[in-house]
């Protein structure tokens, strides 16, 4: 069986990438056979779990082939892998690991994660919610280590943190190509560290990170609860900070809210400037959509831009997702993007969150917002403010509920369905022409979606 194993390893070397083979197969040792299973020893628990998840099938296939029989494999952890044991097992577990090329590349000479070419300042729309973080990022990009250090950017998912971090990197690389800039997610930092430990090249790892001019670390909340990674990052941080090198960190939480983070790291994150990103308002969402539609070439009519911007999207990534979906649908089905098509195509995405919204709820919230009674909305009174409130309520019912036109008409005091269509169209038009009204309607929508 030992010979079969050696042959299997040789065969695997031919089919796997050099990187995968060196990293994952080479360190495996044949141990013994017990109860019809081949026992292979590996350096760490992390290694064992990784192999089980990613390479077990190829190992079993390769060994069964060379052994001429079906074999099963059991991994055991080698004793006395001293350096690797410095880390706690829970510190070695990579959660939600993304299998992209950069993360997969653990070789000593692996480069840092490349910057995303789409995430530049030119393509970032500054608006309410991100203005402060945007300005802080620009200041740091134009004067690294001379303004805010560290710069800590935090905010909810998909609101542009990575975009700003990459933009800082692009600007510095453009203006000061001599500076050594590293963009790296906290997850990748940990992953590289684990590999360095296993391959006994911690010195190389430290030299790489501690000789940078600019360290851009994305999603630092990932190191929460990971003791070994926090320790290493602490020393990296200190080394860079003491040498007046720029550090920029992003997180989905304020430093104090990151659980299981050592106090000494937490306080360091607060040494420089903390800038938050809040969800964008309607105008910013419209500007971002217009920018993305320019970049992607997916042309959106104005009413669709408003429809997307005013939808209850939680973040910009989702907004982009909807744009891409409309673009794909339009090109695959050869239909132009229109408001009706957008409603239909996105109903699954938007529908779910709206199932609790009823005509009655809309009437109540609109009446409250406009200082009217629900009965006024249902009446036939023609006072200007009343007519507009009624039309807004009807428009919201069409947009946010599944009620049909006749149904909506019936619940607004027995109006016929052409009145409902007219009201909805009127507001469609007014929203395009009157930003104040658009904002007002958006406020009511937000209230309904709370
Ligand atoms: N102000 C903006 N202008 C233009 N595009 C933006 C803006 N904010 C976010 N985006 C876009 O939204 C998408 C998500 O942004 P990004 O990945 O930077 O979010 P994030 O805050 O880092 O999210 P996560 O918490 O998931 O890491 C990207 O495609 C980005 O280009």
Automatic annotation (TrEMBL):
Residues 1-99 are annotated as: Domain I, interacts with DnaA modulators. Residues 114-330 are annotated as: Domain III, AAA+ region. It comes from the Bacteria. ATP binds at residues 158, 160-162. Residues 331-450 are annotated as: Domain IV, binds dsDNA. The keyword Cytoplasm applies. Pfam families: Bac_DnaA, Bac_DnaA_C, DnaA_N. SUPFAM superfamilies: P-loop containing nucleoside triphosphate hydrolases, TrpR-like. Residues 147-275 form the AAA+ ATPase domain. Keywords: ATP-binding, Cytoplasm, DNA replication, DNA-binding, Lipid-binding, Nucleotide-binding. SMART domains: AAA, Bac_DnaA_C. It is found in: Cytoplasm. Residues 358-427 form the Chromosomal replication initiator DnaA C-terminal domain. Plays an essential role in the initiation and regulation of chromosomal replication. ATP-DnaA binds to the origin of replication (oriC) to initiate formation of the DNA replication initiation complex once per cell cycle. Binds the DnaA box (a 9 base pair repeat at the origin) and separates the double-stranded (ds)DNA. Forms a right-handed helical filament on oriC DNA; dsDNA binds to the exterior of the filament while single-stranded (ss)DNA is stabiized in the filament's interior. Belongs to the DnaA family. Domain I is involved in oligomerization and binding regulators, domain II is flexibile and of varying length in different bacteria, domain III forms the AAA+ region, while domain IV binds dsDNA. Oligomerizes as a right-handed, spiral filament on DNA at oriC. This is Chromosomal replication initiator protein DnaA. It comes from Pelotalea chapellei.
């Amino acid at each position: 069986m030992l010979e079969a194993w050696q042959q299997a390893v040789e065969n695997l070397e031919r089919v796997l990438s050099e990187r995968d083979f060196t990293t994952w197969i080479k360190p495996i040792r044949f141990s013994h056979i017990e109860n019809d299973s081949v026992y292979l020893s590996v350096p760490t628990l992390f290694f064992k779990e990784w192999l089980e998840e990613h390479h077990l099938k190829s190992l079993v296939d390769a060994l069964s082939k060379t052994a001429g029989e079906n074999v099963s494999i059991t991994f055991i952890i080698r004793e006395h892998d001293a350096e690797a044991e410095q880390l706690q097992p829970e510190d070695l577990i990579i959660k939600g690991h993304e299998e992209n090329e950069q993360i997969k590349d653990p070789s000593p000479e692996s480069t840092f994660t490349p910057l995303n070419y789409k995430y530049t300042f030119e393509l970032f729309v500054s608006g309410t919610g991100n203005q402060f973080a945007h300005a802080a990022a620009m200041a740091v990009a134009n004067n690294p280590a001379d303004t805010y250090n560290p710069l800590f950017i935090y905010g909810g998912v998909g609101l542009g943190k990575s975009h700003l971090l990459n933009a800082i990197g692009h600007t510095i690389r453009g203006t000061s190509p001599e500076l050594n800039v590293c963009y790296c997610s906290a997850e990748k930092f940990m992953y590289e560290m684990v590999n360095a430990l296993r391959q006994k090249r911690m010195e190389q790892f430290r030299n790489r990170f501690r000789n940078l001019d600019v360290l851009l670390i994305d999603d630092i909340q990932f190191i929460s609860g990971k003791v070994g990674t926090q320790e290493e990052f602490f020393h990296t941080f200190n080394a860079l900070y003491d040498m007046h090198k720029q550090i920029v960190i992003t997180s989905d939480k304020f430093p104090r809210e990151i659980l299981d983070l050592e106090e000494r790291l937490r306080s360091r994150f607060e040494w420089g400037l903390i800038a938050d990103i809040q969800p964008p308002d309607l105008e910013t969402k419209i500007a971002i959509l217009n920018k993305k539609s320019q970049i992607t070439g997916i042309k959106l009519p104005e009413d669709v831009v408003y429809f997307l911007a005013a939808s209850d999207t939680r973040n910009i990534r989702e907004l982009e997702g909807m744009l891409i979906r409309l673009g794909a649908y339009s090109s695959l089905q050869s239909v132009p993007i229109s408001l009706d098509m957008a409603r239909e195509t996105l109903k699954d995405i938007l529908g779910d969150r709206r199932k609790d919204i009823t005509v009655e709820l809309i009437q109540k919230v609109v009446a409250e917002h406009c200082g009217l009674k629900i009965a006024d909305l249902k009446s036939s009174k023609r006072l200007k403010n009343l007519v507009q409130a009624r039309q807004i309520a009807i428009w919201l019912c069409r947009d946010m509920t599944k009620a049909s036109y006749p149904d909506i008409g019936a619940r607004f005091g027995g109006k016929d369905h052409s009145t409902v269509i007219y009201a909805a169209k009127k507001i469609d038009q007014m929203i395009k022409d009157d930003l104040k009204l658009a904002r007002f309607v958006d406020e009511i929508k937000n209230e309904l979606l709370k």
